[in-house]
Amino acid sequence: MGLCDQCQTIPLWDLPPFQLSDYTCGLEQLGKPHYFNLVRKDDVPGAATPIGFHWHQDRGGLWQSAAGGCPLCRLVDKQARLVLSDLDGGDQHAAIMKNKPRQADILRQVKEKVETHLPFGDKEKKPDDNDDVMTNIAAMVAEESNVTLPRPSFDLWLTNRGSAGAGLMVFSTSMQGPGVATEKCLIPIAIIGFCSEPEDSLSSILPGRPIEAAPGPSAFALANKWLEQCDRRHQLCSAHLGQPPALLLDLDNATEHSQATVRLCEPPVQVPLQYVALSYYHDEGSGHNVWKNLEPSLYNISSNSTRAPGELIKHENLCQVFQDAIVATRRLGLRYLWIDSLCTPAGDEKTWTRDSENLAMVYRNAYLVISATGASDPSKGLFEQRSPKNYEHFPIKAESADGNHMVGNVAALSLPLQDEICGRCPELRSEPLSRSAWAFQERVLARRVLHFTRDQLRFECVGGEFGMMSEDGTCSPLPRFFHLPNRLENAVLSPDPMQLKDTVTGQVSVAKVTSIMEMWSAILFWCSGLDLADPSDRLPAMAQTARAFREMVQLRGTDSDYLAGIWRSNLIDGLMWGSMNDLPNFRSTEIQDGTPSWSWASVTGPVTNILWTSGNYSLIGEVIEAHADVADPAKPFGRVTGGFIKLRAPIIAVSMTEFPFTDGTMGLRPTEASDSSCLVGAISTFFETMDGNFDRSAEQVRQMKLFVVVLAISSHPSNGEEFYHGLIVTPTKDDDGVLRKVGRYLQTAKQVRRWVIDLDTLVQTITLV
Fold first, then answer.
1. Contact at 8 Å (CB) between 473 and 458?
2. Cα separations in angstroms, 17 against 13, 54, 688
3. 458 band by pLDDT with thresholds 50, 70 and 90
4. How far apart are CA 681 and CA 678, in angstroms?
5. What pLDDT sits at residue 31?
6. What letter would DSSP give residue 585?
7. 25 or 500: which carries more pLDDT confidence?
8. Which of 17-21, 518-522, 598-602 has the highest mean pLDDT?
9. Does 120 have pLDDT greater than 90?
10. What is the predicted pLDDT for the residue at 493?
11. Where does the Heterokaryon incompatibility domain start and stop, copy by copy (predicted)?
């Protein structure tokens, strides 16, 4: 069926762009996959021009057109129903907020605590200033608990998808009051992608193809097209970067469908040699070294394999992911394939562990990495059945590149809202392999990757205008650190901040200057949150990522300047990492493997460094000496067994406040300060592995001797407010001069002045272990 009269007026090929940079994402992390909102920034004036093309003006108009059979309205109407379901069916946000204490309870609890601990035993005196503070805090929490999510008015506007691909985006204004809509807050309703069948006349202008039940001829034709375009256009991707590995699988006797044997071979003298490397989910139950204690039942290869040139391996005796990698390589017209457990020379396994530079160079030098991104173990292949997509088909007119008019049939589908608008598509976070820390390292080292995900093929490369292209036609920019050794080079080492020069454009964006350590913080946050069978592998799993990062940004120095995951050039600020214990259902734990407490590798789970993202900052501490004991001298970026940092910095003895803050967490104050003096100013106390809840952890913390080591001061980029950043430390045994890190402390400079603390008089020399 064709489009309705309303949809036939849409200029499908000439829709205006959406100015996403004018908006910030509102409440979008509420466990609601179909709902979030965009709030126009305060410094952006009201739109002088319309949001886009004005479409339906109310919910009834959209519903009637959908019920009448319009294919485009049907797609959008289905998404609108999901948005409303998220709003009306089990509001998780409201449920979360209702768990917070109400205003009366907060006032009563806080006042009772303060009155019990008034200084000088004066139970009758009421601290008026603190009364105001408590009232304001209680009012804010009570107001927050009654938050109502903005609702769509269904006054609908259409824009194009920009560089993301063919199709359109649907936005609704929000309800400001009964019958009153506002453009200040927009609610995305749907993103519709346009595809075409390969034989359709529109295929020349629509790159996306309808997704098959399993990757077939259409998908591989698209993959070959991606590779051909990449070879022709991207010098970075096609450059020859080094020697191939010592052993490869020669697939010359294998075809796209045959079950012939494959042969191990030494790489031929051919420059450049194009080989494919396989990245897949290993069974890590026996440790990270997949070649140690190799299980024949898992890989279905002979236990007496010599893994030497000339050895023949039967295709049918391999596990499914290996079989499919052979078939996929041949369908791409390539002859040589590298698979770790088949191509590691016998007797040389120790130099080919997953944290070795040998392995890293295989992925860096591969013509292509085939990634079994959607397979959860080696028994799952690349050609698994994919969930069917819901397409709506309709004819439209278009103009070809040579100016000729054509009529073809569009296959339209709904795309995930948050993935596209929030830029999450390239992350592939829901895919099994994307949760592996080891696989992350293989991905960032590769120059181009063909992902076999659970829903479609995706291709990413380091030199393209768009970082990732998908079977459905979607193009998505990659995070800048996803391809470390190839995407960026020639760091411009300006003093503040250090900048990175893009090798594709040759430019450093003035608007988006990225400091080196801010980028490292992003890498650290991403990688530290991924899965490892052995938690003590945190440093080994990031070893080659760190090595490539140092090369990319041209950090000066030697391997010894990487101390247990922290760069010596940024040692003081690097200590300000912290566990993400505020994430739902997560609690970081200490790893008992000898890693010093000041290293992020001493705890489990994701870590971040707010100092590197908090605007301008100045360091207060001074490093005197630092050293890390590397377990294997041949692997300076790998596991450590100990280490210390000797530094001079202000140290404040602190104690726990005698009552919790309004969110139920514990606070720390200078031991000499009264509890009532802690009610003014922002106080943030973060423990790395302990529960910050007052009721659950107060007794444990009271038994600890605690200090804050002040290391930096930052200023807020918008209002200039100053904050002190420090480490929460506790003595080891009975020596107050040897300390271990247990958390971080953030305090306003205003509060520190209120405590009448002179930091210069509190400077001491300590040792962190």
1. no
2. 11, 13, 44
3. very high
4. 7
5. 62
6. T
7. 25
8. 598-602
9. no
10. 32
11. 275-442
Q: Domain boundaries in the chain?
A: 5-94+148-195, 101-144, 217-385+423-478, 516-768
Burial label for 676, CB within 10 Å (0-12, 13-18, 19+), is middle
What is the DSSP pairing of strand 578-579 with strand 566-567?
Answer: unpaired
User: What pLDDT is recorded for position 264?
Assistant: 92
Helix/strand/coil percent split, the chain, to 5: 30, 25, 45
- The pLDDT tens digits for 391-441 are 999 999 988 777 778 899 999 999 988 888 877 788 888 899 999 999 999
- Using CA of residue 264, residue 485, residue 224, residue 325, what is the dihedral sign? positive
Q: Other C-beta atoms within 10 Å of 721: how many?
A: 14
**Residue 391, SS3?**
coil
Q: In a 10 Å sphere around its CB, with 0-12 CB exposed, 13-18 middle and 19+ buried, how is residue 511 labelled?
A: exposed
DSSP label of 161: -
Q: What is the pTM of this model?
A: 0.83
Q: What are residue 166's phi and psi, to 5 degrees?
A: -75, 145
The whole-angstrom separation of Cα 324 and Cα 381 is 6
Single-letter residue type at 280: Y
Which amino acid is located at 447 in the chain?
R
Q: Name the residue with tokens 């035993």.
A: 121
**Can you tell me which residue has the tokens 């309870």?**
105
Helices marked H in 580-718 — which ranges? Answer: 694-702
The predicted-structure confidence for 652-683, as pLDDT tens digits, reads as follows 999 888 778 777 788 888 987 765 555 444 46
Query: How deeply is 628 buried, as exposed, middle or buried, from its count of CB atoms within 10 A (0-12, 13-18, 19+)?
Result: buried
Phi, psi of 24 (to 5 degrees): -120, 150
Q: Cα-flanking dihedrals φ and ψ of residue 340, to 5°?
A: -50, -55
Least confident of 145-149, 162-166, 352-356, 523-527: 145-149
Question: How do residues 206-218 score in pLDDT, each as one tens digit?
Answer: 999 999 898 989 9
Whether residue 693 is predicted with pLDDT greater than 60 in this model: the reply is: yes
H helices within 357-427, ranges in order?
357-365, 417-421
CA distances from 640 to 543, 565, 572, 660 (A): 12, 10, 19, 38
Closest Cα partner for 721 from 576, 617, 649?
617
- CA–CA distance, 562 with 638 (Å, rounded to integer): 10
Joined tokens for residue 1: 């069926």
The pLDDT, as a whole number, for residue 576 is 95
Contacts 24+ apart (CB under 8 A), 227-235: 227/332, 227/368, 227/448, 227/459, 230/448, 230/459, 230/461, 230/463, 230/464, 233/463, 233/464, 234/461, 234/462, 234/463, 234/464, 235/463
